[in-house]
Structure formats: C-alpha cells, structure tokens
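Sample pair:
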Amino acid sequence: MGLLLGTSRFLVSGEPNPYFENRIEAAAALYHSGRIQVILASGDHRHASYNEPGAMREALLLRNVPDEAIRMDAGGVSTLESVARAKHVFGLNDVVVISQQFHNERALYIAGKYELEAIGFNAQDVGRLWGIRTVLREYLARVKAVVDLHLLEKAPYLD
C-alpha cells in the first residue's frame, strides 16, 4: 500500500502548491504502474474548511486513480501521526511512503520506531527557490521528531 503524506493543496498566495502536485503525480504513477494497489491519503482534516485527504482524493481521481483504490486518513495531522496510524489504525505492516526525499527520510525514521516496514518513493522536488525555507522547516521538524519519539515518547492520536 502507498502512504501518501499530506500537505496543503494551495499556497497562501492561492497558487497551487508544487509539493502537493508532485506528490499526487508520484502516487498516481505508482498506482498506474501496478507497484501499489491502494493509496492511503493521510493528512490534516481537523477543521471543515481544511481537508488534505479530501483534496488528495479529488486530485487522484482526476488522474484516473479509481475511488475504490483510495483510503483516507483524516487523523494524519503530522508525519508522526500519519505513520503511526498507518500501523496501528489501518493495520499495515509495510508501506511505500510517498513524499519528497527530505520528508521521506523523516517518515522512514519514524516508521522504524513503530516497527512499520517502509520504503520511500520520492516525488519530484520543487527547486532551489523553495530550498532555504524547506531546509529550515525540515531541520526543525527532524529535531521535533527526535524529541517526540525519544524524549517525550509522544503517543500518537489513534482514534
């Protein structure tokens, strides 16, 4: 199964988010190649006005991924939550994590903590213009992952 990690469909400016678009393209390509049969779209849907899994589903349908091949996880409000829920809520033992390389590296680290066999499928990155902001955000996210997993032993939301 593919675990498609969520992000916003649009930027604050209203423009399409290239990270989102590239992840959707990667997931659809994996599905159409037969390498995965089901996609678990995991993202944030804490508010009625913001629905990452729903947006991913719509985008996948537009790329001819059938509805029956898409599962949605509205509880994936963070990478830690998405990975832990794949294992403990959806009962998966192995997944192909679909995101950009920098994000997959963190997701695979988290998967190891939850004894989830995972490999990453790297969606196309978005280029240097985004680089500094992304590198800084990812650095902080990696520190947070280590703190959450090893110091705080944060329990993910599994309902």
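The chain has five helices and five strands.
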